[in-house]
Amino acid sequence: MNFKAIKTTGITFALAAAFLVAAGAANSSSASAQGWGRVDRDRDGRIDTRRELIQERMGFNAGLARGRADAIAHRRYNPFAFGRVSNDYRQGFQRGYAQAYRQFAFNRGRRYDRY
Which of 13, 31, 52, 102 could anchor a disulfide with 48, C-beta 3.0 to 4.6 Å? Predict the structure, then answer.
């Protein structure tokens, strides 16, 4: 065998070994592909469905609007949604209301009720 054949064979084995080591390292890592959406869990450990996340977002936006309006009009803190709504909507509403009420009431140097 000449030197060129030995060199080619050695490089081939080195590349094959490097490929196997890289494949094994990639396989043993703890990272995994995840979807674009967040995985949100309820208090009982169940994963929220898309409908529940949409309801929560709708409640949050409604709470933002109502909290801002109440703070600007100097009404007392009242984060309760009216009517028959889902629990996810209610939780989102209360979070949005608290955030907006705090922001608009405190930015004017006044403190109303609890927040």
Answer: 52
